[in-house]
């Protein structure tokens, strides 16, 4: 049997309308626009409405991705949802999305790899397509981080925003060919970035609430160092797996967590002009696993990717998890 190669044939994104600016945060915690801009590169972020959830934001991004791919929900045979802010612990957000999309009784499952989730989900989609197990996989990365951020903790609340991204992966030889993927993890560092409450170790109780255990907790500067090292090394490994050199990269699409992290990774790609490192951090903040997909979708929508271009995606997050992916735009099929 002739194995089909996996391709991203359409992408989409969704950002809630409500904007939370640095000036708004100055009124909420002891911070300043100057500190946030110079330490992170973030100027504003989007916040979902109280009654707007991860599944619904995922639906918006998915519909755009399916429209761009020229398919409908009936063509899908699998839905993968990456999120660390699911609507519920169970049932999965993927099942809720299957219903919202009217996708039929297809395979649907959630993937939890924190900020690296989009790339982890892509690797599973690629394996499903290339093994012949599935023919059309919807990947959605969606986050309502505002539901787990403590807006009294200045060290985290200035960083995160809500949003979602999606792509359709199939064996059609068009769009972005998924050339290589490299994934990794290090659970020994799990304590540095976590939400301790709500699971079976610390089920919700008055005590867990009193101890703020249902919010994101992060040792920022420790996470920073690991993020730079891991994204650098996995980018390098992924390029070599694809048979490419650093100078072959036309676009770098990194996880959008901190401008200084992005600049540190960019140092490796000395030939790449700054404008070829695609950034949406300034306007959306850190949207966790949605961030790489949001940036990719925006880059494609602006028609900035040309045929034959090589794109390098790279991400890092809680777990720790990290991963990179090389994509190449096929000839005559610019998305
Ligand atoms: O997406 C998953 C992966 N996440 C990341 O990759 C995030 C990685 N970490 C970071 O981006 C950065 O570490 C942060 C932006 C979170 C923090 O930047 P930093 O340069 O590492 O600052 P720091 O934590 O070392 O804190 C420096 C100072 C401290 O004050 P003192 O102790 O020096 O007096 C903090 O209390 O900045 C203070 N600070 C703030 N000041 C004003 C921390 N947050 C704020 C704030 N406004 N919002």
What does this structure look like?
The longest helix is centred in the C-terminal third of the chain and has 22 residues, at 220-241. This protein is α+β, with helices and mostly antiparallel strands and 335 residues long. It has 11 helices and 13 strands. β12 (310-317) and β13 (321-329) form a beta hairpin. The two termini are 28 Å apart. The strands form 3 sheets. A 9-stranded mixed sheet has the order 5-4-6-7-1-8-13-12-11, with helices on both faces. Helix content is 32%, strand content 22%. It binds oxa(dethia)-CoA (UT7). The site of oxa(dethia)-CoA has 20 residues, from α2, α6, α8 and β12.
Write the layout of secondary structure elements.
Layout: E1 7-14, E2 19-21, H1 22-26, H2 33-40, E3 44-46, H3 54-69, E4 78-82, H4 93-101, E5 107-111, H5 117-130, E6 136-143, H6 154-157, E7 163-170, E8 176-185, E9 193-194, H7 206-210, E10 217-218, H8 220-241, E11 251-254, H9 259-266, H10 281-284, H11 290-301, E12 310-317, E13 321-329
Parallel strand pairs: 4-5, 4-6, 11-12
Antiparallel strand pairs: 1-7, 1-8, 2-3, 6-7, 8-13, 9-10, 12-13
Q: In which range does the helix fraction lie? A: 25-40%
Please summarize the sheet with the most strands.
9 strands, mixed
Low-confidence stretches: none
> From the structure provided, what is the oligomeric state, counting identical versus distinct chains?
single chain
The helix/strand order is EEHHEHEHEHEHEEEHEHEHHHEE
Q: Judging from the principal axes of the Cα atoms, what is the shape?
A: globular
Task: Give the strand order, joined by hyphens, for the main sheet.
Answer: 5-4-6-7-1-8-13-12-11
Report the C-alpha radius of gyration, rounded: 19 Å
Instruction: Report the mean per-residue pLDDT as an integer.
Output: 96
Named once each, the bound ligands are: oxa(dethia)-CoA
Strand content: 15-25%
DSSP E strands, number = 13
Class computed from helices, strands and strand pairing: alpha+beta
The separation of the N and C termini measures 28 Å
SS element count, helices: 11
């Amino acid at each position: 049997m002739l194995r089909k190669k996996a391709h991203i044939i359409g992408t989409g994104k969704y950002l809630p309308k409500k904007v939370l600016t640095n000036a708004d945060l100055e009124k909420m915690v002891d911070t300043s626009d100057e500190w946030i801009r110079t330490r992170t590169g973030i100027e504003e972020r989007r916040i979902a409405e109280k009654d707007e959830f991860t599944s619904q934001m995922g639906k918006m991004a998915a519909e755009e991705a399916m429209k761009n791919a020229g398919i409908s929900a009936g063509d899908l045979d699998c839905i993968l949802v990456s999120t660390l802010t699911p609507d519920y612990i169970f049932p999965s957000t993927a099942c809720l999305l299957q219903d919202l999309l009217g996708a039929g009784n297809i395979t649907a499952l959630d993937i939890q790899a924190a900020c690296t989730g989009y790339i982890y989900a892509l690797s599973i989609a690629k394996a499903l397509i290339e093994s012949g197990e599935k023919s059309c996989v919807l990947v959605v990365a969606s986050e309502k981080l505002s539901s787990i951020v403590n807006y009294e903790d200045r060290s985290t609340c200035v960083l995160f925003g809500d949003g979602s991204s999606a792509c359709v992966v199939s064996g059609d030889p068009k769009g972005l060919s998924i050339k290589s993927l490299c994934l990794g993890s290090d659970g020994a560092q799990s304590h540095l970035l976590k939400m301790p409450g709500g699971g079976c170790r610390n089920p919700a109780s008055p005590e867990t609430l009193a101890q703020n255990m249902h919010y994101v907790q992060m040792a920022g500067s420790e996470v920073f160092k690991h993020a730079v090292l891991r994204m650098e090394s996995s980018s390098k490994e992924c390029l070599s797996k694809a048979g490419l050199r650093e100078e072959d990269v036309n676009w770098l699409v990194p996880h959008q967590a901190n401008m200084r992290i992005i600049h540190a990774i960019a140092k490796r790609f000395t030939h790449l002009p700054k404008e070829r490192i695609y950034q949406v951090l300034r306007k959306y903040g850190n949207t966790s696993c949605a961030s790489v997909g949001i940036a990719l979708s925006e880059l494609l929508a602006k028609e900035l990717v040309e045929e034959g271009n090589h794109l390098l995606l790279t991400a890092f997050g809680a777990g720790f998890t990290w991963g990179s992916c090389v994509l190449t735009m096929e000839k005559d099929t610019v998305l």
